Amino acid sequence: MRLAELSRRSGVPTATIKYYLREGLLPPGRRVSATQAEYEEAHLQRLRLVRALVQVGRVPIASAREVLTALEDDSLDHSARLGTAVWALPHGPEPDADDAVRKDARRTVDTLLGRLDWTHAQESAAESPAYRMLVTSVVTLARLGYPCSADDLAPYAHAGRELAVTDLDLIERYESPDEQLEAAVALTVLYEPVLLSLRRIAQAEESERRYGRPERGDGERA
Amino acid sequence: MRLAELSRRSGVPTATIKYYLREGLLPPGRRVSATQAEYEEAHLQRLRLVRALVQVGRVPIASAREVLTALEDDSLDHSARLGTAVWALPHGPEPDADDAVRKDARRTVDTLLGRLDWTHAQESAAESPAYRMLVTSVVTLARLGYPCSADDLAPYAHAGRELAVTDLDLIERYESPDEQLEAAVALTVLYEPVLLSLRRIAQAEESERRYGRPERGDGERA
DNA sequence: CCGTTTGGAGAGTGGCACTATCTAAGCATG
DNA sequence: CATGCTTAGATAGTGCCACTCTCCAAACGG
């Protein structure tokens, strides 16, 4: 199919598709002549994935490129591709200083990971984006006056563990390695807003259950 | 304290503090003369909250203002303030169309909420930001070829419910209504990256457990 | 009295995700 | 072949956002 049809079928403007092609988020089409290129179904699928990552998953373009190129990096094996892809995913602010508060937070996190026997996370991936994001969040909470101990974090870690099992079960539904790779990235990123919104809804529900009045005020937000 | 000291103690540049004051994220200081203003500890705390929301919680400035003004809106009672504040929090893309896929997603979500007996969410807050974010995510997943049924969502909802209970228990540790309000906002927002990073770490851990290195990983399937 | 500091306001900056414009080369039709 | 529409590709521009810079006049302080 031509670029125009790709645009029509995906709902993405042609200018934006051209931009994605330029940025390497989308592999170039099969050149048919100097001014024509042919795109396949795979391009459409990839385009939808890009849109989902960028718009719903809030993944920056540059990170999305890293993720997607990792997915098809022939020099890596299956699990290395996935690791590289997920590694490129998150996007938290870099820590500004390594002060006492941060050391405390790191100790708390390490205690938690040790208690859970998550030794892999502690050793080979201690500087993974996820680990750093966790430490940064704990630091921020502490500075705000909400210190969180390993005990406080434990319920979230347990939830994370159960969800991870669910996630991997979902991914295992897919047969081919390529499908699994895409599914892993898509499900990791796109279930995040699912989880967060369900938590918010549950908070409102539980709050109503405890304190009994509707959460929503009346006089705001047309 | 003066603006300069506020800056020094918070680590936020004076220019940025002035910007926050202009934007109404920070209440003005007590005017001492035409060119002097005095700031209290409360300003410092508020400033730290703003920074946490904006930098770690990725809340846009405009939303942060809505949240913070709701927290001190004297025309609302305690729970209305909290509702308004949390209502202003998230920031997903607005849905583009109300097509068949979206209707399906809505039905799936409603089924899930009904099954959980989350009637409040279904009725009075059916158009809450969280509900819309959830529907949008399900739509995106479906369009990508990852349909998720109410059964698929159930584990995430279950996790959300347990976390909501934990969250409210944490908030109840605080005595005064004002403290509870700030805690509710801070903990809702700042535990999000905690939860997401713990999920990522757990995924890596579980993945290693299933497919991992020959040393420790044995093919234990869950 | 005078250099420095302060609060305030407006304009400017840099990053990012597009988006509009332009150009040259097709392809389609008469 | 002439004519007009479409396409791929490149370059420059747009809008938004979170700051950040510059300036001013008042005022503090030695």
DSSP summary, beta strand count of chain A: 2
Q: Which two chains form the greatest contact, residue counts included?
A: A-B, 89 and 90 residues
Distance between the termini of chain A: 43 Å
How are the strands ordered across the major sheet of chain A? 1-2
Radius of gyration of chain A: 21 Å
Helix/strand order of chain A, N-terminal first = HHEEHHHHHHHH
| Integer tally of domains of chain A | 2
What is the 3D shape of chain A? elongated
Category from helices, strands and their pairing of chain A? mainly alpha
Q: Could you name the ranges of chain A where pLDDT drops below 50 across 5 or more consecutive residues?
A: 214-222
- Residue share in helices of chain A? 55-70%
The profile of the biggest β sheet of chain A is: 2 strands, antiparallel
Question: What are the main properties of this structure?
Answer:
222 residues, Multidrug-efflux Transporter Regulator, Chain: A, Domain 2, 10 helices, homodimer, elongated, 3% strand, DNA-binding, mainly alpha
Give structural notes:
2 copies of one chain form a homodimer. Chain A is 67% helix and 3% strand. With 222 residues, chain A is mainly α. Chain A folds into 2 domains: 3-87, Multidrug-efflux Transporter Regulator, Chain: A, Domain 2; 100-211, no CATH class. The first copy, chain A, has a two-stranded antiparallel sheet. In chain A, strand 1 and strand 2 form a beta hairpin. The longest helix of chain A is centred in the C-terminal third of the chain and has 35 residues, at 177-211. Chains A and B meet through helix 3, helix 5, helix 8, helix 9 and helix 10 of A and helix 3, helix 5, helix 8, helix 9 and helix 10 of B. Chain A binds a DNA duplex (30 and 30 nucleotides) through residues 2-4, 13-16, 18-19, 21-22, 29, 31, 33-37, 54, 60-62.
